[in-house]
Amino acid sequence: MKQNFRNYLTITGGYWAFTITDGAIRMLVVLYFYQLGYTPLEIAMLFLFYEFFGIVTNLVGGWLGTRIGLNRTMHIGMLLQIAALLMLTVPVTWLSVPFVMAAQAISGIAKDLNKMSAKAGVKLFVPTGSTSNGGAIIESDRDAKLFRWVALLTGSKNALKGAGFFVGGALLAWIGFRGALLLLAVMLAVALLITWLLLPSEMGKAKAKSKFSEIFSKSPEINYLSAARFFLFGARDVWFVVGLPVFLASELGWSFTQVGSFFALWVIGYGIVQAVAPNILTRISGDADARMAALWTGALMFIPALMALLLQEKMQENIGQQHWTAIIVVGGLALFGAVFAINSALHSYLIVSWSDHDKVAMNVGFYYMANAGGRLAGTVLSGLIYQQFGLVGCLWCSAAFLLAAALISTRLHKRPFPCYDTP
Known about the structure:
Oligomer: single chain
Mean pLDDT: 77
Largest sheet: 2 strands, antiparallel
Number of domains: 1
Distance between the termini: 23 Å
Radius of gyration: 21 Å
Number of helices: 14
């Protein structure tokens, strides 16, 4: 048990280090290229390959993890991220759109290899064992522990991604674009060395070789959950990735450090809520099934819709518009983050819980392929819709995506949800 917990902490630590660089590089690219005069759509296109190759990586990465081991796919991801960081340190005259897109493609492959390896690896270290009664599955202590470990990994990761946003904005103001990238590359190299030494070499390697065709062979629950995940994360990124940071800098006049700090605080708060989601769900709903995802997604849908209505009203006024706009955006984003965190934690638990040990990497990879597809759609639409219709248009698109996610979630089969004894 102690060895399993040490391995879990090692995976989490490596994931933390990687996540800081991922959040930082995102903020660095958005703010730096906005400073160079790129339009919102051009900035969104810089991340096109980042998201596209994330789709491919998740689809193939799970199969690869079952064949060579999750520790190796994790370390390949770290090496690729270091390469992507160093690519962007070239002279500014080399930083054309195709070149930056290529660097972001490598970063996207790296990120999803690392995420898939970390989240699939958690299941391998939770002690096995469950009970049944007349064929009805009863959630065991293992399921409760699994949800807590997955929620803690995911929540802490998002909190650290928030720290990465702050680090990116602050380093850009402090030591510039190239200096920030070099410092991040050194930090990740240290994390790579530590995890290389501590993790078991055969982690996640399947006993029987999986066929490549099996990456498409999924249960109905995983297919529906993956489809819902597509629209859930598309709904976040359609206003979060490009529209919001550009809006804060251009419309509200925030500095780069202020934008980075705001995103950092939001994602840190989001991560904290996600980490304690098991206790929150228990206190609010008690025993429940997977269709709870539809209820929480439906509740989330009303937040961007209400924000859009309020912003439309304030934009028609001339007095105190900027002050009230800031309150609506900041307050609405805080509420959105809390409810979104519950949705994300619930989804992350379900995909791991519904996967057996030998197939967990493939199922998680397939699921995060849908996640990456949603981010890709959201990223492109974020730049396109913001350029044409502003932040209000992005918010309406977000509400439409969430409606689709809620409707798909109603198709999930009933499944007992773990109970927890909260202190």
